[in-house]
What does this fold into?
Amino acid sequence: MPKRLRDKSLVVAMRAFFDESAISPEDGPFMIMAGFVGTIEDFERASDAWQDRLDDSPSIPYFHHKDRNCAFLIPALAEIIRDSNLQGFVVTIPHAPFAGRNNKIAKGLIGTRIYDYAFIHTVKYVLWWVDKNFAEGEKVDFIFEKRRELQLCIDKLYTPLSIEGLDFWNRAGSCTPEDNKRVAALQMSDLLAGQSLESIRIKRKSEAFQVMEGNRKIFIINEKPHKTVEQNLFLHSIGKMIYDAGRKKILDWPEDTIDPALYEKEYRALLAIHRIAQETSELLDKETEELNG
It folds into this structure.
């Protein structure tokens, strides 16, 4: 664990490390966010044992579940997690509701990406668990694998909610990105995420997954966004198709002779989509409030 993370131990006693798997639907039907929660001392002991195993001959610089050269280490590393005092969490979100998302139209819109839902549900369940199991006043710092999607979640979800501090959100410490090549605890999370995906593929818990939860049950949380999210993403996609069709007509028309009636159908269709989106916005706002609460 980097020294700058260990130095925070004087302020915050708990840590939560999380990595993701199958963020693309091509990798599986569910995105997975998985990781571990524990005290700084718990992570230091597990990290030392983890690093010792990586240093054994044949040594590898860091563990990555997708790297076939690391596969021989999985049984031994699973045992290190089993023998630790770390609590595992796995959050799954289905890809299907996001199939209609148009990357250009929805770019930068919080709540339109599958990562947003995996992130917020992971944080919520960890904070709830910490609130139920640790002394009042204890906070937890979150460390996620560095991804471009993470910063928007921190800025738009985590920071405002942690500042507001309602309910179990008063347990929230900092939330930062890190590189799993340098952080053993994120490599542990990568192992759990990878074995969770493997368990989904084979339709039963993998051997390594069973080993990891040999002394402590790993919490598995299956969540999905409200149906209004899927509806609005579909509207985004249809709207983009209509816009592109109208734009093509304009570009194909001879210069300086554009007839407004040419794209009247597209204009009216976009207005209809806008009205439908407005009608569902209240339901979406309620879902967002529930998601944040």
